[in-house]
Amino acid sequence: DLSYVSASMAVDKRGMLPLSSINTSEKNIITIEDPIEYSLAGVGQIQVAPKIGLTFAAGLRSILRQDPDVIMVGEIRDQETAEIAIQASLTGHLVLSTLHTIDSVGAVVRLVNMGIEPFLVSSSINGVVAQRLVRKLCLQCKEPFDPLPELLLKEGIPLPLSAQARFFRPRGCKACMGTGYLERTAVFELLTMSNTIKTLIDRRASDQELRQRAFVEKMTSLRMAAFEKASVGITSLEEVFRVTREYSEAI
User: Fold this and answer.
1) What are the phi and psi torsion angles at 65 (to 5°)?
2) 183-199 tens-digit pLDDT
3) In 10-55, which residue ranges form alpha helices assigned H by DSSP?
């Protein structure tokens, strides 16, 4: 089984890969990373070293000779690494990895565009999670805000809103050093591999077709996931639109 995280450059990708939750003494878990950002007890970790020929692909081949149960590939950057990861997943290994794409559907399309046969992509992937980080409003100074319906419609937010929706905007104070924000929180988009999605992948459907079908199957988009955070006062609409702008333009 192959699971992917589609991530923007600003996101701490490895924090998303759930190694700690599956790390038990019975499992042989090995990673190939560039760089190794966190030391994980009980996990074999390999640092990529291109100068001596230790690329992601070479490291992955080495890992497969060590009879792993779980493999984490820090990032899939080329066709060779993708092919080895997919073959590993088809031979009974759980493979976790990341790709830099706009959204979850983009990860699937990226693999096909790398030269991976669509039927291998559809038969090996369990699911894809896309994630972004949004800034959280400062609790000391955030102020109530009523957004204009025209603005929401322009940004693709369906109306009417829930009666419980409450929006706030940043103001700035000493606690947040005038920014209006403190800390960050993650928003997620999960693409699950239904039979219909697999069929679309097999016939090389476009990213738009895949995305439309995923929405029919009740996938929550990155923008709507972020909007839900804004509607309960965790972040601002301004932050939602900023973080998901590239995603919105793609669809």
Assistant:
1) -80, -5
2) 999 999 999 999 999 99
3) 19-22
